[in-house]
Specification:
By secondary structure, the protein is α/β, with parallel strands linked by helices. It has eleven helices and 13 strands. The strands form four sheets. A seven-stranded parallel sheet has the order 3-2-1-4-5-7-11, with helices on both faces. Helix 3 packs across helix 4. The chain is globular and about 55 Å long.
Amino acid sequence: MQIFVTGATGVLGRPVVRALAAAGHRVRALARSASNDDLLLRMGAHPVHADLFDPGSVREAVAGSEAVLHLATRIPPRSEARRPEAWADNNRLRIEGTSHLVDAALAAGASVFVYPSVCFVLRDGGSEWIDSSTTPADGGPLLASTLTAETEVERFAEGGGRGVTLRMGYFYGPEAESTLESLALARRGGALLVGSADAYFPAVCVDDAASVIVAAMERAPSGRYDVVDDEPLTRREQARAVAEAAGRPFLLRPPVWLMKMAAGSDTLFMARSQRVSNRAFRDATGWAPTVRDAREGWRRIAEALRQPQP
């Protein structure tokens, strides 16, 4: 299958591209620099230069593709998250970029379009199991653009293809910058896990998230699916798992008011309790995660980071 991928050099894109190339797919990946060209070639992909905000450029890049995987993001660093303008590029990618890609995919006659959204759009569910079929979305200002992107995926499905939205949990893995930052903070005794100690925190290890992208492309029916570990942990349990990985007896978590002061009230969706289930995607595709919960995941991360680097 010929596949067009955006965000191919990101934390999710790299394992996705490697898996696709290893499976024999022909991967064409959006590249933004010469260094990205070299990385993509080493991963087995053909780099393509295009501007996601230029419809003609996108249509030319996507032509001939049977599948489009839109993995690109531009999430601002935590230090900039309070400023609404820091999210402008990411919002534009989600809104304009997704719209142009859907137009191009329809014009190319692609059979499937996959977009990873975030399950943080779901409302607080307390201790109850929730998913996208049972719980309304309430994204707020920072997540409104990903909900707009989801409607573009629906438009692709209405055009006759398979449009698959994957509402992902928080990514963690030994190559994820956010994971390395969390470990660095944990070694100083802190954890950026805001909310009640008994509130559930949905997460998914990067390798499992990548395998979901491939499974969705290959066999998921159109729709929205939630992608998380089998057993989301509470923030108390999550903090213990990170503390163990960092070699600390315990971690201090910031109060909600401090998070609001530091990052702004628009980020408080991160304090919700979301005990999200991945059952719908498992039932639809037969996929299963290799990591059951973040306890196991953080143990694996600690072990991986102790290994000598090649």
